[in-house]
Design brief:
The structure is a homotetramer. With about 375 residues, chain A is an alpha/beta fold. Chain A has two domains: about 60 residues; about 260 residues, TIM Barrel, CATH 3.20.20.70. Helices cover about 35% and strands about 15% of the residues of chain A. Chain A contains eleven helices and 14 strands. In chain A, helix 5 links the parallel strand 10 and strand 11. The longest helix of chain A has 24 residues. The radius of gyration of chain A is 22 Å and the shape is globular. Chains in contact: A-B, A-C, A-D, B-C, B-D, C-D. The interface between A and B is large, with 78 and 78 residues. The complex binds phosphoenolpyruvate (PEP) (4 copies) and manganese (II) ion (MN) (4 copies). One manganese (II) ion (MN) binds next to loops of chain D.
């Protein structure tokens, strides 16, 4: 159940709910509700009658299984990564190489992607590779390269963490922890990052349903870490001409269900360099809060995923077009919602006979 | 092989190639190449040496299997439907109900979608329904409703044709013949519409690869009808929360391979009314030449597909936002291509040490 | 609704139901129920009270949407193709080349597959090919080859029909009409074969759900032709190492829902010659009523699908193993059902403490 | 490269190869080749000329990327779990509940599945559940229940391990470590179990290609643990009527590529109790080396996956039918291979005119 407490509720209210949950063995977790108060997710049906719960604002016994991630729980979240706000209206551009290749290269690419418009730097230090004989990433040296690049540019950095034992190490260096597609249902890893306060970028498993994706976010949030950003990065489909199929339907759909920001990765989501710019635009147009892009100074010679990697120059084009696209759409959003509430939409049959002129007036 | 003839070549050149093909039993078909000349697709290796072929411009023995549809064959095509140009730069908006419900309703919705920005009217007279016991469409009465609506509004009309025997009938009423997703590999039907000169809207099979899709276009073009517009309308994927998954990757990918216009259908491609507007924007941002949208005055009471159908008011919002989005992106297209030729992209390593300022100069 | 009439009901009962359906505009169709009586499927809620319906045995207002195909309607069907019974217990082996290549070849392969154990001959005269430039089948000459082969061997013949206009022609030659995977949702074609009395082999669309598959059978049966045999032939999945993925789950699942026989095609279902024998065994073990196999004297030089085609010798091995496998399983079926009714299964907890010895006694 | 050393080669040969690999930074790992000698997989091109390599039997510079798992490397493997041989000809039956529910229940079900024919006991102590609020398994208490059940019955036990830190703990209790479908590409976990000598049951990721599956086996083997058994457990497909689609094509296909045993899990592979028996038969007929089945005394009240769980009685039926089916097929295997080498198959055209009688003679 979801229990919302007003912003002026005494702390005893929250304490009473948590204690009652503990007593019954129900998992419970509180978080701000984005309107000054707090919401507590309790995994069980707590009998509230008879308890002194001053400031109780709302009780929702029925809700989605991903209660903490659900839009039923709170206002849309804004996740801060360093001083970059994700979900607050301005799009985030995470960019950098698939794999970190050296400290110098990482610093250089950091400067380039920053100049091209990126506000978060990416780069893999620990890499999930299909073959045990492929380059597995620079490891800790890669983490150090990220820190050097952050120092040189001021960009916060995001990098993948692959196992629970690595979480503390990676969190000591990175501003955001990436959970890769292959680990979306690695529950011990999700629980472990849920115990940190470092923001998490959770990539969708390439065969995960929307609900499974949100349940994985719930794993992190149930541990207390509510700083989760979702990332759609392509699903496995039947056409061998594409590495993955970017599944943008989930972007507006998740916006209806979940308060967390969601970004799109058109690099993995296409597997082809020449499709990245167009699908980046499509991702933003679908309502994503930003993009993650693989960028390398010399994509053809990148240590991994070069075929889907663009240059900094291409990134700058994507960045400028992306801002222009969003600005064009935002003009409208001030007046009316694109993801409109269908129930309140003026019905055509109320407009009367002369639909044409009526619509022209509205426009 | 593809054989291009200059615009001032004598007609004997074309005749000689066709005759030689006929003699060898090779299928051959000529079409304009968009630059004043002609291109002939010959399904076989014609030995050209020794023939008098004045005005021969280019011979391509190696090409994609969909030779007539291939971008190797000619400039990008513009397909005229009535006086509406598809593929020429302005987006097309095809809109109307899933099924035609009556003459009056169709005239009314035609007026409404026109007012909301549509330039082609849709509506199914012959409907492919999973159940033999469901409403199968009004048939010929539906065709008459389309004509009435066209007369009332001036909008050209598109409607589905489901079997070869129906083609002449439907073509007598409609400005464009729709081949449905379930019939994308109905080759006798494709051959039959290939024998008309009526423009064809070919919807992608929901489990067709990109290459199979283009081969189906080739079936139509091989018959002589080159007025083909492609339509991505969602593929079958694994998440039961969505009817189909709109597969926008194919839009920029097909633009790289094929000269035909391609539009996007976010109604069938999402199966959910509330996702249509956002995915319409995504389709345009991905590079589509237009949209097909299911629109009904009272979606909840539509005879088919109401759950994915929007109102005329919602269409007008989609239309205005779509134009704004395209205008925002077109500004850039004047200066540089979004689907850029990666080979000619200025490489980062040629920009030198100071990537930042270099990029700033470029921007 | 499904209305069952006893075998001694007066013909007036049946007539009254059909007349009442006609009056209300409900589609209605009668068929034997396999127990001597008849079942009438009515697509609508007929008010039966007040009608004189002597011999009325059962009324089922609630049933699956594929009412005629449903196991709720009747006993398991046996479909006769010539003198071969499909579904009656002995497995059917349909075998022959993908495409008919000449009269002589077809007669020769007919003799060989008969010797190898086949009891129905296949061969495509009209072929659905992805490319308009590929061999499209011998057409009517192919049909004549089938007749010659039938005369030489006595084997009934099955061949694909691709369009409504072809149905009469093909039915004049063939003992069974094959509807290909690409045409499973070609509803005009289904309706047209539903108007004949020739047995139909309906192949599952490679992206069709089980329910869509059964609804397509319903299209044929609703027209009056209840001689339908289903065929699972592989679905489209994500691994490019396989042409299709043979989806055997549907075999026992359809047996729970539907009274029609179902066979398995491991040639198209694997796309690889070396996998055919094993997957043929798997199909029979899953409960299929037989197999369809592509067989050619010289697979490497077959005009189509050679990579998935086996030799007659390999067919004879598959045939003998298949019979042995079924015999091994049939021994058990006499004693108890493999697809057992879970509700009547003796529960472990009724066996008491000493599960081991109890089970040993049962065994 | 794969380097095979004769069984009488001096140990210096092996040492020289390993040393040369180390020097060049190439990963190298030796394993028995099943014919008395050894094969060394070296991840790189070692220049062997000039080295003293007495007893060198074979050098394969070209091989599959999963070199240690490849059938190019060695004879078919037999993996011992306790005293149960997997892959040696007799099928293995792993059975037990999805989740261990208590010590008593686990002992009881162990006795029951043993009586019903199982030779390995399963049961999850650490469970991967989509929801953080679902039962996550008994943990260490579950491991103790497995030990108690092993003591009571003598059955070796298999249970899932979900994270690297858990491996030592689980290996201290279990005879075989299960890697779940969701963790097939959890490479740190694969590396960690590769460092033990405990046999591993590697379940295929539900959206993993055959090659990715074998590469994951390679991760384990590259670490030195060659006791790997593969398990096909269903892939994600498009029909919501099935939890997963059992993809049996991979069974004979993997047999062509890989020396490791492979079993089939028809419980997860169907997600429906009533389909398990038939698909178990299909799995064995496809060539699997055994089965994994979820079995519970009272499936309707199981703590997880009850809908796909069968009773011990049903297991005993599956077991007896499975043995009968294999015996029926084995009779033939003595005479000739079902997965036959197509290249050596007697060609039909060598049989001459009278195919019928020739085949009859062969038969
Ligand atoms: C491996 C990566 O992504 P994913 O987990 O989406 O495949 C990556 O971002 O480099
Ligand atoms: C049936 C339709 O579309 P599709 O063929 O794409 O399903 C339609 O446009 O109404
Ligand atoms: C084309 C054929 O099959 P399908 O329709 O299953 O592809 C065939 O049987 O040759
Ligand atoms: C969770 C299990 O299997 P899988 O990893 O195949 O889903 C299991 O065996 O209980
Ligand atoms: Mn990458
Ligand atoms: Mn529709
Ligand atoms: Mn074929
Ligand atoms: Mn389970």
């Amino acid at each position: 159940m979801l229990i919302t407490i007003a912003n002026d509720a005494p702390s005893s209210t929250r304490a009473a709910i948590l204690a009652a949950s503990l007593e019954r063995g129900f998992h419970a977790q509180a978080m701000p509700n984005g309107r000054g108060g707090e919401v507590i997710g309790v995994a069980g049906a707590l009998p509230l009658e008879g308890m002194d719960l001053t400031g109780l604002e709302r009780v929702q016994p029925v809700h989605k299984p991903f209660m903490m991630a659900s839009l039923e729980a709170r206002e849309r979240s804004v996740v801060m990564v360093g001083d970059v706000a994700i979900g607050g209206g301005s799009p985030v551009f995470m960019a950098g190489p698939c794999s970190i290749e050296s400290i110098d290269d990482q610093v250089e690419i950091a400067r380039a992607v920053k100049a091209a418009g990126a506000n978060i730097l990416r780069g893999g230090a620990f890499k999930p590779r299909s073959s045990p004989y492929s380059f597995q990433g620079l490891g800790q040296e890669g983490l150090e390269a990220l820190v050097a690049a952050r120092e040189a540019t001021g960009l916060p950095v995001v990098t993948e963490v692959m196992e629970p034992e690595q979480v503390d190490l990676v969190a000591a260096y990175a501003d955001m922890l990436q959970i890769g597609s292959r680990n979306m249902a690695n529950f011990p890893l999700l629980k472990r990052v849920g115990k940190t306060s470092t923001p998490v970028l959770l990539k969708r498993g390439f065969a995960a349903t929307q609900e499974e994706f949100l349940m994985s976010a719930e794993y992190i949030m149930a541990g207390g870490n509510t700083n989760v950003v979702l990332c759609e990065r392509g699903i496995r489909a039947f056409d061998a001409a594409f590495r993955f199929s970017l599944d943008l339907n989930v972007v507006p759909s998740i916006k209806e269900l979940c308060h967390l920001p969601i970004i799109v990765d058109p690099s993995h989501g296409t597997g082809r360099r020449s499709l990245v710019a167009r699908m980046a635009m499509a991702g933003l147009a679908a309502g994503a809060d930003g993009l993650m892009l693989e960028v390398h100074a010399d994509p053809d010679n990148a240590l991994s995923d070069g075929y889907q990697t663009v240059t900094p120059l291409e990134l700058s084009r994507i960045h400028r077009r992306g801002l222009a696209l969003l600005e064009a759409l935002t003009g409208f959003d001030n007046a009316e919602d694109v993801v409109c509430d269908m129930a309140t939409l003026t019905r055509f049959d109320t407009i009367g006979e002369d639909a044409g002129s009526a619509l022209e007036r509205i426009a």
